[in-house]
Specification:
41% of the residues lie in helices and 12% in strands. It is α/β, with parallel strands linked by helices. The chain has 2 domains: 2-101, no CATH class; 139-518, Aldolase class I (TIM Barrel, Alpha-Beta Barrel), CATH 3.20.20. It has an 8-stranded parallel sheet. Helix 6 (90-101) packs across helix 18 and helix 7 packs across helix 18 (443-467). The radius of gyration is 25 Å and the shape is globular.
Amino acid sequence: MTRFATVGLLVVGAVGGVLLALLVSPWWWLLAAPLVAVALTGAYDLVQRRHNVLRNYPVLGHLRYLMEAVRPELQQYFVERNYDGRPFDRDTRSIVYERAKGVSAEEPFGSERDMDQRGYELLVPSMAPVDVPHEPPRVRVGGPDCTRPYDMALLNVSAMSFGSLSANAVLALNTGAARGGFAHDTGEGGLSEYHLGPGGDLVWEIGTGYFGCRTGDGDFDAEQFAEKAAHPAVRCVSLKLSQGAKPGIGGVLPGSKVNSEIASVRGVPEGETVVSPPYHRVFSTPRELVLFLARMRELTDGKPVGFKLCPGSRTQFLAVCKAMAAEGITPDFIVVDGAEGGTGAAPLEFADHLGLPLTDGLITVHDALTGTGLRDRVRIGASGKVATGADIVKRLAMGADYTNAARAMMFAVGCIQAQRCHTNRCPTGVTTQDPRRARALDVADKSARVTRYQQATVQSALRIMAAMGVHDPAQLGPHLLRRREDRGHFRSYAELYEWLSPGQLLAEPPESWAADWRAADPDAFTL
């Protein structure tokens, strides 16, 4: 209510100044005119729907946009920092904002990137480019045991929970997904009316807390799960093993955010901090994991079921592949979350030192599935700082079938990376359960931005592929992505990484994989 009181005082002051100017002396106009201008600005800020910051911080919030106009680098350094403290690339962030607003992201005078630096990546253009397809391709998710497959878009909303996000943020994301025809991952916080109401396609994520399908003592409740998984909006189910920001530990939702509504959705006590366990109760070995996935698919009546992880140990993932082969059971999809990803709060040491970056994790999972002859049964999603069309194409060239974005989708609904997510005092209404702050996020405006951003980014990916002479994402490969090693010397990803052929691990593992393959045990998560 402070913002309304502040604007009210400004209006009273403006009216008083005008009366003094009219009744006492014209000199009072020197005070009255600025007060009238500021009061009108504040009143407009409260009712406008485009800018979250101005709705929560009338008048004062204009300083942010002044900084952006005068010197974008200052505004981005002081206001829009990455969640783990590292700056998110300025050009990438600008592209997301502009696409969400429907503004062209094309700029004159070329790139500002240092193309001479080691590690610079490029996608290989063709001397015979092709036409851009009229309709974006979709990826059929559903292996041989899936009776109700789902056609996934090339870019989707990655996992972010209700509770971490406000109701308005979830509504905006799901409404945007419904309008644009792409999927919305719920995160592990359960299924809420804000996920189900707008009608967007959902990937229901089940974490270690089993929120939404949880017994009183924290176990998996099969009956609840089957009932909710039957909802027509739930198109896929994802079992979260780990996430990029903090592999190996569970999530934390501060008690200040656990209101009665969130407590009901999650099946936890109101007002108490919710800590997800670091491990699953329903399995303890790779074989048990695979068998549980099969049970989940049966409970969903044949919908696609998969799991998400931030890879670390190649031996452990190979153990899961051995269990798949032994049981004849495969997930319909696997989402690889890179260690550089993650939109939630995490210990800095975890963000900096645990888990594989998306490139290495993605290639590891792709190679392991290929080498065990399972790749054609499993679709791979890539998640971790995916924000532009070039990001999508690079991940597809590395072995992914589709991509998910979290941070960029938060930008689209108004996030400015103020790093106040854990305090319940998000200035833009994105990551707060305070209804006064959440009001700043206008669902109609921000859902349209989500749709525009996704469609423009996928279209950008298709234009890049067409420039590379590629008609279909299946034609992309590591030979079309190159990295500078030193001046004048580029090497393709086909050269930089080892790529296994189908069934190679079963026939004769290469020397570089042999030790991990021998150590992999389908009945133990050994390193």
